[in-house]
Amino acid sequence: MAGKQWRRRYWRLLIEPRAQFKLFAPFFGFMLAWTAVIMTLAWVFHGMIDQLSAPAATLTPDQIAKLQVLNKRMFQVVMWGSGSAIGVSFLFWLGFSHSVFGPMVQIHRQIKRLAAGDPGHIVQLRPHDEFKKVATSLNDLTEKLKSKAS
């Protein structure tokens, strides 16, 4: 049972996959472009430091070792930074899209209930959700329909 709850919990991260993809596409494009620029920069610096360490006759072995350590550190920082940027961008997208599309699902369900003649429910949103004004207006409409029905 615990495995089923885990799957259900994480499957619900994709509420409206088509709409979430439309929202995700610009973020994904930005992430790819930014990562390509940073990775290109890293490879350029990597090649520059390799070229600097090539004329061993003009550099001491200690200077060459220091350049190689600098090269390795800079490359690691850029790669870890790119990976972190992708992860943070993905988490931002997931949180933002969930706060937009979660309320839309609730509002859509309430409209279907009202259309079916069942004004017994209200829309309850989480504190960080979007569309609070729409939910409040829909709840007001629901209350008016309840009072007319009784």
- Which percent bin holds the helix content? over 70%
Number of helices: 4
Instruction: Look at the helices and sheets and give the structural class.
Output: mainly alpha
- Terminal Cα span: 43 Å
Low-confidence stretches: none
**Element-by-element helix/strand order:** HHHH
Largest sheet: none
Number of domains: 1
If you compute it from the alpha carbons, what radius of gyration comes out, rounded to the nearest whole angstrom?
27 Å
Mean pLDDT across the residues is 80
Percentage of residues in DSSP E strands: under 5%
Q: Can you describe what's shown?
A:
By secondary structure, the chain is mostly helical. It has one domain (19-149). It has helices at 2-11, 17-52, 61-115, 132-149. Helix 2 (17-52) runs antiparallel to helix 3 (61-115) and helix 3 runs parallel beside helix 4. The radius of gyration is 27 Å and the shape is rod-shaped.
Describe this structure in a few short sentences.
This protein is mainly α.
Topology record:
Layout: H1 2-11, H2 17-52, H3 61-115, H4 132-149
Helix pairs in contact: 2-3, 3-4
